[in-house]
Specification:
The complex is a heterodimer. Chain A is mainly beta. Chain A has strands at residues 9-13, 18-23, 32-38, 45-50, 55-56, 61-64, 70-75, 84-91, 104-109. In chain A, 35% of the residues are buried. The model of chain A has no long low-confidence stretch (mean pLDDT 93). By secondary structure, chain B is mostly beta strands. Helices cover 0% and strands 48% of the residues of chain B. In chain B, strands 2, 4, 5, 6, 9, 10 and 11 form a 7-stranded mixed β-sheet that branches. In chain B, strands 1-3-8-7 form a 4-stranded antiparallel β-sheet, with no helix packed on it. Classes of the chains: A mainly beta, B mainly beta. The interface between A and B is medium-sized, with 21 and 24 residues.
Chain lengths: 110, 115
């Protein structure tokens, strides 16, 4: 079963920051949080991952709370091409399974 | 680097027929995953390979689905016989090795329609 909970949908104005929340209250100490996005008719695309420190790359920033029970993916300046379904995943330790939930459908509005 | 290759891109079959999907992971990637994605849902893990051994197939309906990864490289997923509820996109993903922090790389999937 998925170990994450996300809102089903969100809207964001073009050029503004998109903040996508994720709850993973049952995460274990050595389990990583991964974020992927999926644009229609394509496979999921990796965005970013982290363990407990905040992370940033060219696509996004990942903020993980100190207790690690939730995280937020930040797209600093959303564009129309960021419209997609965003998945927050906790990668299980041991067998390293990536279990997807239902994700958040982000719509960037012009 | 070349991405994960999957074929065919689309397949339409009638129920009770058989079908096979093929995946060629990124060169050197030891771990390979097959996912099933039904319309409107997130991908569901079917089977995970490490080299040519099965790590997890707990969600694979073994009465009709089978998968193999000969020589630890390419993989095939087979459905025999297909049911209407098998209509979905079948995604293949690979990563360098189990435990690594390198992310999964996905192919664009095979869209199966069972009529």
């Amino acid at each position: 079963d998925a170990k994450t909970t996300q809102p089903p949908s969100m809207d964001c104005a073009e050029g503004r920051a998109a903040n996508l929340p994720c709850n993973h209250s049952t995460i274990s100490g050595n389990e990583y949080v991964y974020w992927y996005r999926q644009i229609h008719s394509q496979g999921p695309q990796y965005i970013i991952h982290g363990l407990k420190n905040n992370e940033t790359n060219e696509m996004a920033s990942l903020i993980i709370t100190e207790d690690r029970k939730s995280s937020t993916l930040i797209l600093p300046h959303a564009t129309l091409r960021d419209t997609a379904v965003y998945y927050c995943i906790v990668r299980t330790s041991g067998t390293y399974k990536y279990i997807f939930g239902t994700g958040t459908r982000l719509k960037v509005l012009a | 680097e070349a991405g994960v290759a999957q074929s065919p891109r689309y397949k339409i079959i009638e129920k009770r027929q058989s079908v096979a999907f093929w995946c060629n992971p990124i060169s050197g990637h030891a771990t390979l995953y097959w996912y099933q994605q039904i319309l409107g849902q997130g991908p569901k893990l079917l089977i995970q390979f490490q080299n040519n051994g099965v790590v997890d197939d707990s969600q694979l309906p073994k009465d009709r689905f089978s998968a193999e990864r000969l020589k630890g490289v390419d993989s095939t997923l087979k459905i025999q016989p297909a049911k209407l509820e098998d209509s979905a996109v079948y995604l293949c993903a690979s990563s360098p090795r189990e435990g690594a922090h390198s992310p999964l790389h996905f192919g664009n999937g095979t869209r199966l329609t069972v009529t």
